[in-house]
Structures are given as C-alpha cells and as structure tokens.
What we know:
Layout: H1 3-31, E1 43-44, E2 47-48, H2 49-73, H3 75-98
Antiparallel strand pairs: 1-2
Amino acid sequence: MNKAKLNYLVDASIAVLFTVVSITGLILFFFLPSGLKQGGSREVLGIAKQVWTQIHDWSGIILVAFISAHFILHWQWIVYATKNTFQKKQIYSEIKNNK
C-alpha cells in the first residue's frame, strides 16, 4: 500500500471515530447523565448506558491510536514546518535589530 492510500485510510478512520466519540459523548451527556434516579431511563435507542459508555471509551482509545499514526506519517512535515516557522521569526527579529 502506498503512502497516499495509507494517509487516506488513517484520516478517514479518524473522521469516523471522531464522529462516533462525539455522538456517544452527546448521548451520554444529555440523555444518560450520571446520577439518574432509580426510576429514570437507563437506555437510549434500546441500548443500555453501559454499552454506550463502552462504545465511547473504546472509540476514543482507537481514535488516539489513529491520531498517533497520523503524527508518525506526517512527522517530517511537522519538523520542517516547525523549523521553518521559528527560522522566519528569528530572521525577522535579526532584521529589526539591525535597523
């Protein structure tokens, strides 16, 4: 698999996982908050709070793994962009000091 396809798959996976984590987080926050009374609903869309929590937690863990892979795949660009950004600031400050 070439690097472009791998980047695409990693980025698409990040997008899907971000969506899952966001939706499950909203469901847990708004519809299944902690501290519900004993008689309160413990299900949304027929799925128990424990299952929503597991989906949310595992999706988040996998998301972190894919984000780490994303950083690894783009590490050379990150280093180049960081060096380029700080070198420009240093050059501009030297120009100002010489005036």
